[in-house]
């Protein structure tokens, strides 16, 4: 017996499956990754996320958090960075910052929904062809304590949500995807670094052989995040303070210490 051919009933229509509309932000993430020549695994590694997370972003099924948008903008560079920074909530007011390294020239550059103004040029002439290169660095709501103070317990800086951002020259941030700003608690690093200062920490720089004499942020389960100057003397690793009343802390005596990253620079508000 032959099978009867299926005949659709009156009013029955076949509907072609709808195409999933990929959001514009997801498409731009994919284009950025391809433009950088990175696989989903490689991009995820640079941002401290999994390849699966990158896949979800590019398909539009899950949007990256604000912290990740900042890092994507840093990787994109100008002017594409503003596409990503704007989704993280970055406003032009966050970019108009003054830093302690001399007086910056005034540049005005038009980006979508932004006008960047860097103060301090006075009446000096401006080269309109020169582009301002900025990096948006997350300012994390956590503290690194100096000797005598207990810092925050969280040592995974790339997993902390940022409430604000600080714009800095790109030359100040050799590894922007691995850089965050923290606040300082305590005065044992005075007068170099004071209580309430903001420090930029590059947590890709953790090799002790390259850090002797540099200011670092270290972590200990009891002391939390600690700010100190790292010293290596005849193979002995120590954390030292600027205040001579504190003796250097020898790391070999307590294996629970680990270096979180190198402090690149620091800033402070005026009185």
Sequence-ordered SSE layout with sheet pairings:
Layout: H1 24-36, H2 40-47, H3 51-59, H4 66-76, H5 81-87, H6 92-95, E1 108-111, E2 114-117, E3 134-145, E4 164-169, E5 179-185, E6 198-202, E7 215-220, E8 224-233, E9 236-240, E10 249-250, E11 258-267
Parallel strand pairs: 3-5
Antiparallel strand pairs: 1-2, 3-4, 5-6, 6-11, 7-8, 7-11, 8-9, 9-10
Helix pairs in contact: 2-3, 4-5
Q: How is this structure best summarized?
A:
By secondary structure, the protein is of the alpha+beta class.
Descriptive overview:
The chain has 271 residues and is of the alpha+beta class. It has a single domain, classed as Umud Fragment, subunit A (Ribbon). Helix content is 19%, strand content 26%. The protein is built from 6 helices and 11 strands. Strands 4-3-5-6-11-7-8-9-10 form a 9-stranded mixed β-sheet, with helices on one face. Strands 1-2 form a two-stranded antiparallel ribbon. Strand 7 and strand 8 form a beta hairpin. Helix 2 packs across helix 3 and helix 4 runs antiparallel to helix 5. The radius of gyration is 24 Å and the shape is elongated. The termini are far apart.
